[in-house]
């Protein structure tokens, strides 16, 4: 077992090619990626094949394979090696020498000899060399015919016969085996890990059910790559075997959906990932922020153009209209505080819970301040919520009632964001004689600016990790609130 398992192991496949993508290094790279590793590949042989069979094999000069292997090992720290098709005795020897030189921490040997189609992928005179390579592997993954060649005995015809033969092979080569039941008939399809533990050979069986399919091209390649990758991650062979088999069966089940070829089709290496993770990309929080800001640009421009905002800046705003606005604001803040308290109660972390709770408290504090300075509490009894105030609050309370925290963070955001933005501009109009100086200066509040930054951060981070549908709902809620902000600023001169 390795001292330190790697989160994304760097796994090198040494194997032949399959231009139709289902077996060989093409399958290995997909399998390594699907099982959580970084895949690399050195080509032993180029095989003109498809799902129906092998047409011809071209073996490049052996020194060139060694160059490929050295190019990788001179540069990359290799966490695991998976060996597949080796074609000739010279290649087996060259790979063995490289293994002895580089000594990679994990070696999985799939002793590829015959393709699913029945075509030979290893010269018969290379079998002795392959037997000599087996002891260098941490795990050998023969199918039943390959096990027989390692055992130099007839092929097993029953599962118990295969396991008995695997015990002999494990003892003889001093290596660990994963023997596969794919070539036996029947509904069950077990695999077994056979290894020497404290001098005795132990067998761990992984039962399985045969999937009714012809999509079995590359199952051996894919399984051995999955094993190398998962063992490099966990350092546990039994766990790697169980997980790899589960992954492979799921991939076999979805193979036919790919509609690749008319023979033995490939497995769908990423079926599980596609189903559970999807292929949608996700934006960074910064991109969400700039996208949202642009999405409400028209509303922001309209707010800047409002007579109320302009007159407030110039100081020409009618005082009654201003006090009416503040009274509406006080009414608004009372329920806005409740909505922020709801965000606090829905928050996934203690920090966010505290942030929204503080926001709720501050909203009430501002409301009380409004009474002290501008709107006597007695006046409040005469004020009824305007249509704009009612509509804005109904929107926020509805989002709050629906209970999706992420959408709620987007809905409450404009009250921070637009307010801080409008305020920053209004503040510049303040001067000692300005009738609303106190009010304009209150916008300079640094803690409100900091709270606005944090609210933007919480909402955009939530959006960045949400699925597309939720992200869109967040943007819609934000825009709806922005429109309510506009109506709220327009109301003092329109509704009153
Ligand atoms: N039809 C199937 N249903 C479920 N699992 C299968 C099926 N065919 C192969 N497998 C699994 O794929 C792996 C490789 O199987 P096998 O056919 O024995 O090896 P190879 O591909 O090397 O000939 C094994 O784990 C086996 O259990
Ligand atoms: C290059 C290459 N390597 C191996 C196999 C065996 O495939 P399977 O995994 O179906 O036994 C193959 N068809 N081609």
UniProtKB/TrEMBL annotation:
Pfam families xrefs: Phos_pyr_kin, TENA_THI-4
Listed pathway(s): Cofactor biosynthesis; thiamine diphosphate biosynthesis; 4-amino-2-methyl-5-diphosphomethylpyrimidine from 5-amino-1-(5-phospho-D-ribosyl)imidazole: step 3/3
Annotated ranges, domain Pyridoxamine kinase/Phosphomethylpyrimidine kinase: 18-267
Catalytic activity from the UniProt record: 4-amino-5-hydroxymethyl-2-methylpyrimidine + ATP = 4-amino-2-methyl-5-(phosphooxymethyl)pyrimidine + ADP + H(+); 4-amino-2-methyl-5-(phosphooxymethyl)pyrimidine + ATP = 4-amino-2-methyl-5-(diphosphooxymethyl)pyrimidine + ADP
The keyword Zinc-finger is annotated on this UniProt entry: no
Keyword Ligase tagged: no
Listed InterPro entries: Haem_Oase-like_multi-hlx, HMP/HMP-P_kinase_dom, PM/HMP-P_kinase-1, Ribokinase-like, Thiaminase-2/PQQC
Record domain Thiaminase-2/PQQC: where: 308-491
Keyword entries, A-Z: Thiamine biosynthesis
PANTHER family recorded: HYDROXYMETHYLPYRIMIDINE_PHOSPHOMETHYLPYRIMIDINE KINASE THI20-RELATED, PHOSPHOMETHYLPYRIMIDINE KINASE
Function description: Catalyzes the phosphorylation of hydroxymethylpyrimidine phosphate (HMP-P) to HMP-PP, and of HMP to HMP-P.
UniProt-recorded name of the protein: Hydroxymethylpyrimidine kinase
Species: Gryllotalpicola koreensis
């Amino acid at each position: 077992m390795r001292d330190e398992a790697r989160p994304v192991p760097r796994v090198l496949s040494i194997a032949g090619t399959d231009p139709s993508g289902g077996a060989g290094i093409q399958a290995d790279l997909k399998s390594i990626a699907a099982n959580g590793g970084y895949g690399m590949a050195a080509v032993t042989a180029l095989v003109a094949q498809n799902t129906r069979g092998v047409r011809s094999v071209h073996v490049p000069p052996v020194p060139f394979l060694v160059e490929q292997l050295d190019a990788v090992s001179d540069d990359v720290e290799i966490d695991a090696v998976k060996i597949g098709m080796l074609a000739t005795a010279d290649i087996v020897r060259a790979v063995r020498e490289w293994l002895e030189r580089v000594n990679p921490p994990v070696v999985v040997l799939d002793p590829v000899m015959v393709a699913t189609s029945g075509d030979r992928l290893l010269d018969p005179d290379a079998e002795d060399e392959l037997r000599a390579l087996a002891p260098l592997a941490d795990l050998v993954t023969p199918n039943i015919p390959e096990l027989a060649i390692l055992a130099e005995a007839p092929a097993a015809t029953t599962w118990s016969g295969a396991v008995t033969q695997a015990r002999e092979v494990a003892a003889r080569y001093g290596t660990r085996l994963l023997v596969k039941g794919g070539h036996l008939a029947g509904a069950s399809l077990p695999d077994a890990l056979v290894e020497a533990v404290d001098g005795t050979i132990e067998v761990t069986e992984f039962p399985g059910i045969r999937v009714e399919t012809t999509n079995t091209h590359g199952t051996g390649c894919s399984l051995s790559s999955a094993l190398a990758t998962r063992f490099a991650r966990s350092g546990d062979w039994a766990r790697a075997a169980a997980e790899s088999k589960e992954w492979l069966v799921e991939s076999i089940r979805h193979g036919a959906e790919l509609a690749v070829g008319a023979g033995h089709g490939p497995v769908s290496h990423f079926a599980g990932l596609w189903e559970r993770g999807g292929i949608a990309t996700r934006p960074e929080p910064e991109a969400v922020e700039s996208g949202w800001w642009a999405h409400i640009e028209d509303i922001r421009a309209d707010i800047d153009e409002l007579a109320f905002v302009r007159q407030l800046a110039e100081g020409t705003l009618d005082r009654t209209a201003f006090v009416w606005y503040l009274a509406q604001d006080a009414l608004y803040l009372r329920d806005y505080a409740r909505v922020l308290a709801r965000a606090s109660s829905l928050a996934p972390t203690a920090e966010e819970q505290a942030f929204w709770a503080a926001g709720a408290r501050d909203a009430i504090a501002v409301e009380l301040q409004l009474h002290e300075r501008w709107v006597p509490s007695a006046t409040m009894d005469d004020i009824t919520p305007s249509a704009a105030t009612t509509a804005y609050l109904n929107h926020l309370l509805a989002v709050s009632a629906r209970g999706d925290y992420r959408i709620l963070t987007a809905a409450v955001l404009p009250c921070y964001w637009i307010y801080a933005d409008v305020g920053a501009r209004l503040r510049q109009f303040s001067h000692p004689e300005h009738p609303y100086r106190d009010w304009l200066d209150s916008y300079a509040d640094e803690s409100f600016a900091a709270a606005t930054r944090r609210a933007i951060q919480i909402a955009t981070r939530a959006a960045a990790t949400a699925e597309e549908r939720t992200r869109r709902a967040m943007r819609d809620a934000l825009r709806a609130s922005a429109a309510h902000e506009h109506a709220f600023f327009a109301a003092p001169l329109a509704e009153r």
